[in-house]
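Researcher: We're teaching a course module on how sequence relates to structure. For the next exercise, students receive a sequence and then see the predicted structure as C-alpha cells, so they can try to spot secondary structure elements on their own. Here is the exercise chain.
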Amino acid sequence: MKKLCLSVLCALACLPAHGEIVVIDASGASIKLAAPARRIVSLAPNITELLFAAGAGDRVVGNVDFGNYPPAAKALPKVGAYSSLDLEAIVGLKPDLVMGWETGNAPASISRLRAMGLTVHLSEPKRIEDIAGELEQIGTLAGTEATASAAANAFRQRYAALATRYSQRPPVTVFYQIWKQPLMTVNGKQIISDAIRLCGGRNVFSQLPTLAPTITVEAVIAANPEVIVASGMGDSRPEWLDDWKRWSKLAAVAANNLYFVPPELIQRHTPRILDGVERLCEHLEAARGKRGR
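Model: And here is the predicted structure for the students to work with:
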C-alpha cells in the first residue's frame, strides 16, 4: 500500500502544474483561463492551422469553412465562414476558448460572442516573425507548451536562414496582386509585404494607407514594377495574371517576370508562410538573374 501511494504521488508530481492562465491578445484584451483550454473553436483557416501546429489540434471542436489544413481539420464541425459566422453553432459546441482573427472576423460577431459569456482570443501577427510568438501563446492557452515551443524554434531558425540568404540581395520592385476585379494589392503593413522585404523586394504600393487597397491599372503602369506576383483563389495560376502582357512596356512584362504563389502559402498567417516566402524569394532571384540580358 505504501509503495502504491508513493507511485501515485510521483505520477501526480509529473503532471504539469497550471494555475490561472493570463495572456494579452492582438487587440490588447486580457484573456484569462482557469485551466488550459480543452474545447477550442477556431474562427478562421489560419487560426486552425496555428492550433494544430502548436499541438492543440486534438482540442479543436469547431472549425470554419475552408479550414482545410492539416487534412484532419476538414472533418471538424463547421461554424460558418470566417466573415459570416454561425454564432449559435459556436455556442452549441460549448467551447472554453474561441480563437478569432482580429482583421478577418466581423467585430460585431466577436462582441456578441463575448456578450454571451464566451472567452474570445484574437490573433493577428503583424510580421512574419510574430508567428512564432503566436504558436507559443497558443501553447500557453492549451497547455501544449513543449510542442508549441519546438514549432516556434523551428520556425525562427528557418526564418533566419531565409533572411540571411535573401534579405540583403539587390532590391527588386514588386507589385503583389490579390485580385483582378477589383484590382487589389497590399500595403507596407500587411504581412505579405513583410514577405517581400524578406526576399529583398520592395512593394511599390507600400505607402498606401489601407492593408488591402483597391488600385487602378494606371497606378501599376506608373509604378512600373520589375516583378508582378499574383495569388488568386486556389492552387492554380490565375489566368488574369497574363492580362498584363497587353502592356508590353511594363518592366515585369518585358522581362517575363509574372509569377504566382499559392494564396494558402503566402496569405495565411501560419508556419506555412515560409513555404510561400521561399517560392517568392526564388521568383525574385530569377528576376535578378534576367538583368542585363
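Model: If you want an answer key for the exercise: Confidence is low (pLDDT under 50) at residues 1-16. The longest helix spans residues 145-166.
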